[in-house]
Amino acid sequence: MEVILLKDVKGQGKKGDVVKVSNGYARNFLIPKGFALEATESGKRKVKEEKEAQRRKEKQLREEALKLKEKLEGLKVVLSVKAGEKGKLFGSINAKDIVEGLEKQHGIKIDKKKIVLDEPIKNLGVISVEVKIYPEISAHLAVETREE
């Protein structure tokens, strides 16, 4: 029997796949538990349309991510902070501070989880910070810390 998977099923396939399983497995487990529907022509067509729509959406998101990468590559975020001797900061600069500075200075909103910092910035100077925009697409943003 052919069924359309509504959820990922270990050993069978991913959501949206059309797979062939035994009649008993489909009728006694997959369909009653809501993991699958019987594969009809209209159901197969619907799955195909959904996959195509998902592909178009992914393509659009990827294009937007590439545009954002181009914007971020040339930008510099300048943060003024209090510092002590030898350029050591009182406190530190974290991802939240960088996101707030980026929004105030350039009007670009991004999620702070996309900023990759191994550890908070604790010295004055210019540092290149990685911003993971989309899977396999990341940009480098210059962050300059100046003394107030």
Q: Tell me the Rg in angstroms.
A: 25 Å
Count of DSSP helices?
3
Secondary structural class: alpha+beta
Fraction of residues in β-strands: 25-35%
Number of strands: 9
Q: Class of the largest domain in CATH?
A: Alpha Beta
How confident is the prediction overall: mean pLDDT? Answer: 90
Number of domains: 2
CATH topology description of the largest domain: Ribosomal Protein L9, domain 2
What is the multimeric organization of the chains shown?
Answer: single chain
CATH superfamily of the largest domain: Ribosomal protein L9, C-terminal domain
Unreliable parts? none
Give the SSE order as H and E letters.
EEHEHEEHEEEE
Biggest β-sheet, characterized?
A: 4 strands, mixed
Q: How do the strands of the widest beta sheet line up side by side?
A: 4-9-8-6
The CATH architecture term of the largest domain is Roll
Percentage of residues in helical conformation: 25-40%
Shape verdict: elongated
- N/C terminus separation: 71 Å
